[in-house]
Amino acid sequence: MTPIRYLKGDATSPQSPGPKVIAHICNDLGGWGKGFVLAISRRWPAPEADYRDWHRHRAGNDFGLGAIRLIQVRPDTWVANMVGQHGLRRGSAGPPIRYDAVERCLIALATQARSREASVHLPRIGTGLAGGSWPRIEPLIVAALSEHDIPVTVYDFD
Length: 158
Hints:
Layout: E1 5-8, E2 20-27, H1 36-43, H2 46-56, E3 68-74, E4 77-85, H3 99-116, E5 119-122, H4 134-144, E6 152-156
Parallel strand pairs: 1-6, 2-4, 2-5, 5-6
Antiparallel strand pairs: 3-4
Helix pairs in contact: 3-4
């Protein structure tokens, strides 16, 4: 097992050699404009454009909770758009995070990272606008990635 490495810094600027996947949580409504996605869009336009196109054509593709798409942004770096949030706001059904969808996303991410021999870099996914709990999300990351010796770095923005 490879333990999660925690760093202060910016997840859009991964600190490791070799291939890298930057992973984050998206909503299932096609909304992109708050939270970590703004940092992604400032650096690269392709992940947002792909996400919007993926959502726009969802009737003919796999867009939905638990789905992921990887977009190459540099020769050795991809951004993983992972749909793990239902809606945008906290309501009577609780926060928008869907832990089962996050788990499915992470399992799919493990396959993609392994095929690229890539490390995974992310903020504390699902704990911002999605309203999730890190004590519930961290074990999902450990089970899907760390326990399969996929290096994971979690960034806390300082």
